[in-house]
Amino acid sequence: MSEHSAKPYLIRAICEWCADNGLTPYLAVKVNGQTRVPAAFVKNGEIVLNISVGATRRLTVDNERVQFTARFNGVSQEVSVPIAAVSGIFAKETGYGFAFAVAVDPAASLDAATAPVESSASGASPPKDKPRRRPKHLQVVK
Fold first, then answer.
1. Quick check: 77 pLDDT over 50?
2. 115 falls in which pLDDT band (50, 70, 90)?
3. Containing H/E element for 29?
4. Over 60: is that where the pLDDT of 120 sits?
5. CA dist 80 → 8, 12, 83, 88 (Å)
6. What's phi and psi for 39, nearest 5 deg?
């Protein structure tokens, strides 16, 4: 018998807890090729979605996906997020919730790791053998 991930159960639990306490559940998602979200709202490869009862229609959270219909700038859109892409669930008002590790796409990681590094125009880079000096974060106040 294979063991199921606890992630979808925790997502459903936080959603129910938020509804019981009048809070707004927000779902943090790492966007990848399997996510269907409005691209205009994706920032730095991530999107945060309000999944409250008032903001969504036909919300389902099963063991594989979170799916619902929601309005973005007045336009109704279907949203589908694989459970593996969910990086967190939390209450908007309190910040209480869970953060999850999101598996990185190995092909994308390999592409990023092997991509050529662009050199700066000035060509001035710190020497490799000398550690870079950190700026002081404390200030003397008189």
1. yes
2. low
3. strand 25-30
4. no
5. 14, 16, 10, 15
6. -60, -30
Which stretches of 23-134 are DSSP H helices? 106-114
Confidence of residue 136 (pLDDT cuts 50, 70, 90): low
Radius of gyration of the chain from its Cα atoms, rounded to whole angstroms: 21
For the domain that residue 88 is a member of, what is the CATH number? 2.30.30.220
Task: Please check whether residue 58 is in contact with residue 70, taking contact to mean a CB–CB distance below 8 angstroms.
Answer: no
In a domain, residue 132? The reply is no
- Closest listed residue to residue 31, CA positions, set 82, 77, 76, 67: 82
Question: Which amino acid does the sequence have at 52?
Answer: S
Q: Is residue 26 part of a domain?
A: yes
Does residue 20 sit within a domain?
A: yes
**82: closest CA among 96, 61, 97, 101?**
61
Q: Mean per-residue pLDDT for 36-58?
A: 95
Judged by DSSP in three states, 93 sits in coil
Does the reported pTM lie above 0.85? no
Tell me which residue range forms the domain holding 62. 7-102
Q: What average pLDDT is seen over the chain?
A: 84
